[in-house]
Write a structure and sequence with these properties.
Helices cover 26% and strands 21% of the residues. The strands form 4 sheets. Strands 12-13-14-15-16-17-18-19 form an 8-stranded antiparallel sheet, with no helix packed on it. It has a 7-stranded antiparallel sheet with strand order 2-1-11-10-9-8-7, sandwiched between helices. Strands 3-6 form a two-stranded antiparallel sheet. With 460 residues, the protein is α+β, with helices and mostly antiparallel strands. This is CubicO group peptidase, beta-lactamase class C family.
């Protein structure tokens, strides 16, 4: 559980800078209220607010609607099903949810908004109407949901996440809200995250563009569209969720699966990093990953800076006006510049197998120099020693091979090849051969090496 603890607090000057930037966001964005929270190394170390809710300053326990951040919760539920072996991300929707008009799309395409289906439901606008007007998925998708070639483009789809919510319901045999509560909210202690508002909560407002006047916005039960953006939450709760997204919790989802969610599948625009599985890599100076949210009367943001161990959440109860994204970027900058993170202290490995240590050091792909490094838990890393080269980290497997975790060799196999006496002859990396010497005549090199070996180039 994330909470304000006895861990080293933020510097008073940093807290004042955060408070000042939040106050600016509320005043310049003309929001009735703004709240925010900062997580550092798993702990909620700062909360701030500006403006009022029902005549008083909002607190970390005041609910706001978080809109499309709901999609990140849905993605966690889907990845849980994948990790349990109940589905594969490459499965067609028809495999688990027969009878829809998007059955030929895959689970991965829906999660990454690359299914090419409609962004919204048919009229009326789902965000301001009761879900009862769309009692079936056919009403959510409409008669012709296909808009673009599946798998070819990023095309944000609220309707697509309604389908994912229905898929979760089908495989779990329970309503979406019950599954979410049992599998995510309760284990993480998110007791103030709900499908409908529970007091104390903020009222959503539209702010008149040319006069300082407010108009209340409605908040309906979106029905089948709830997985696209219905959740309400608090700074305290969403900070706990952010800490989970940073570090994982095996009761809910492993850190490896969360890292998979962060990795872009499709580029959203030329400047952005791209959209992963229910999370968007926004790129920029701090390499932020997260999700934004908007519903009538509310704006929200949740962003992680994994390398810095930081996360920020922010809510405003205004339909438009405040720039939550700019606020989050500035808050991150204020913390990182004033209080840079100390690197973890280097420490030697407690033990290492001699055979693994013997694999370390220089290797050559042809004449290109590389090196193998050994890390904890028998992980290997291939690094280039030249001007350029394909680098990757490798996870050990039970059969004595290693599997690439990133870069060009993601998913590819690294094998240590030995002769009849057990001596290492070379490394086979997805059919590429790495040897201890560059093109040595006695080495195992595909195509062989000329018998004269290295020498002066013959005259032509």
């Amino acid at each position: 559980m994330v909470a304000v603890t006895d861990a080293p607090p933020l510097l008073e000057s940093t807290r004042r800078a955060l408070d000042h930037r939040l106050a600016r966001a509320q005043a310049e964005g003309r929001a009735p209220s703004f709240v925010a929270g900062l997580v550092r190394d798993g702990e909620l170390v700062w909360t701030g607010s500006s403006g009022t809710v029902d005549g008083a300053a909002p607190t970390p326990d005041t609910q706001y609607r978080i809109g499309s951040i709901t999609k990140t919760f849905v993605a966690v539920l889907v990845l849980r099903l994948r990790d349990e072996g109940r589905l594969d991300l490459g499965d067609r929707v028809e495999t688990h949810l027969p009878g829809t008009s998007v059955g030929d799309r895959t689970v991965l395409q829906l999660l990454s908004h690359t299914a090419g289906i409609a962004s919204e439901t048919p009229s009326p606008w789902w965000e301001r109407t009761d879900g009862a007007v769309r009692p079936a998925l056919a009403d959510v998708l409409g008669p012709e949901p296909g808009r673009l070639l599946a798998g070819r483009h990023f095309h944000y789809s609220n309707a697509g996440f309604a389908v994912l919510g229905a898929l979760v319901e089908r495989l779990r045999g329970r309503p979406f809200g019950e599954v979410l509560a049992a599998e995510v909210l309760e284990p993480l202690g998110l007791r103030r995250t709900t499908l409908m508002p529970v007091a104390p909560h903020a009222q959503g407002f539209a702010v008149h563009p040319w006069a300082d006047l407010l108009l209340p916005e409605p908040a309906h039960d979106a029905g089948l569209m709830a997985p696209a953006g219905q959740l309400w939450s608090t700074v305290a709760d969403l900070s706990r969720f952010a800490a989970f997204l940073l570090d994982g919790d095996d009761r809910v989802l492993s850190l490896d699966s969360l890292r998979e969610m962060r990795e872009p599948v499709a580029r959203t625009d030329p400047e952005a990093g791209g959209y992963g599985l229910g999370l968007q890599a926004s790129g920029g100076k701090h390499g932020l990953v997260g999700h934004g949210g908007s519903m009538p009367g509310f704006l929200a943001g949740l962003d992680l800076a994994p390398d810095a161990g930081l996360a920020l959440v922010a809510f405003a109860n205004a339909t438009s006006g405040p720039d939550v994204g700019a606020l989050v970027e500035d808050l991150f900058e204020a913390v990182v510049s004033a209080e840079p993170r100390f690197p973890e202290a280097w420490a030697p490995l407690p033990e290492a197998e001699p055979a693994l240590v013997a694999l370390t050091g220089p290797w050559y792909w042809g004449a290109a120099p590389f090196a193998i490094k050994l890390h904890a838990d028998r992980y290997l890393e291939l690094v280039t020693l030249g001007n350029r080269g394909r680098e990757s980290r490798f996870r050990p497997q039970a059969d004595g091979t290693w599997t690439g975790r990133d870069g060009y060799y993601r998913g590819e196999t690294l094998t240590v090849v030995r002769d009849a006496d057990g001596a290492v002859t070379h490394l086979d990396l997805a059919s590429f051969v790495l040897t201890r010497e560059p093109y040595a005549p006695a080495d195992v090199v595909p195509g062989g090496v000329g018998p004269t070996g290295w020498g002066t180039s013959p005259e032509v």
